[in-house]
Amino acid sequence: MATTGSPFSAQPYQGISTFGRRPHTRNLSGVDVAILGVPYDSSTSYRSGARFGPRAIREQSLLLWGYNNAQQVAPFEVLNVVDYGDVDIIPVDIHATHQAIEQTAATIQQAETRLISLGGDHSISLPLLRACHKQHGPLAVVHFDAHPDTWDEEYPTFKYSHGTPFRRAIEEGLIDTAAYLQIGIRGPTAGPQDYADAKQLGARLITFDEAAELGVRNVLSEIQQRVGPRPLYVTLDIDAIDPAFAPGTGTPEVGGFSSYQMLQLLRGLGDLNLVGADLVEVSPPFDSQHITAILAANLVFELLSLMARKTTK
Ligand code: MN
Ligand code: MN
Q1: Buried b (16+ CB within 10 A) or exposed e, 157-195
Q2: Ligand 1 being an ion, which residues bring their Cβ within 5 A of it?
Q3: 20 CA to middle of ligand 2, Å?
Q4: Looking at the CA of 147, which ligand is closest?
Q5: Distance from the CA of 9 to the center of ligand 1, in angstroms?
Q6: CATH 3.40.800.10 applies to domain 30-312
Q7: Per-residue confidence of the chain (313 residues) as pLDDT tens digits?
Q8: Residue 77 alpha carbon to ligand 1 centre in Å
Q9: Least C-beta-crowded within 10 Å: which of 209, 246, 296, 300?
């Protein structure tokens, strides 16, 4: 453990930064949820730096005092949450890194511990989905992003990068495409094919424009309808949020969700069967006054609160 006694007995700025000042341990006995860092960004195609994401999110999570007033739950009281530390990654080898991610995630989930992972670039979702699928079978996936990430090859003959994980996941049968939603998609592309391909693969693609027209409430009711009782994995690319609120990311696209809209979208997932989640693409070198990392820490707190609410019912 990084701290002695209650993690809330000390000042928040005291001690070594773990997520939410939870104990750092790899002992999973009695642990409900593990936070895992995945400091890998070698699959970014534009600005890198997301390897520093987990560390920055932990650092900016120190003010999560414990009680979520919006969801009316104290996730760290209801759930035994620990900070598992980071996956050992090899920055020059995506395959070895993906294998290490999958193995670490599988070890955690085999102990009946739920997992929330901090990226890292979006390529890490593929091995995380593989491990989650091993435990739960085909997954409903709610994917917040400015980009569909369903390219076949971002670079000729290279099947794996942060632009391809969801096509690979669909090909591997990890995702139940009847319950796969991409939300917040926007920005210029080389042509109309990117969105057409995502739809062809079975994604319900909700552009930011459509989400704005529908409103948060209607987007949420469509999510509820499509996901139903299926095991749900939430993957949150921080670039789903407007760079005015979350500048610290590698491929920013203007005109996205506000911080508040994203909080509402997560809170509204309510009673869904959330089995795992990741939050990716926070790139501290492009952040300003830590605002992206602060937002990321709070979004993870909302995900933990959802898990806690479900547990108390
Ligand atoms: Mn992405
Ligand atoms: Mn993106």
Answers
A1: eeebbbbbbbbbbbeeebbbbebbbbbbbbbeeeeeebb
A2: 122, 145, 149, 237
A3: 25
A4: 2
A5: 38
A6: yes
A7: 344 445 556 788 888 999 999 999 999 999 999 999 999 999 999 999 999 999 999 999 999 999 999 999 999 999 999 999 999 999 999 999 999 999 999 999 999 999 999 999 999 999 999 999 999 999 999 999 999 999 999 999 999 999 999 999 999 999 999 999 999 999 999 999 999 999 999 999 999 999 999 999 999 999 999 999 999 999 999 999 999 999 999 999 999 999 999 999 999 999 999 999 999 999 999 999 999 999 999 999 999 999 999 887 6
A8: 32
A9: 209
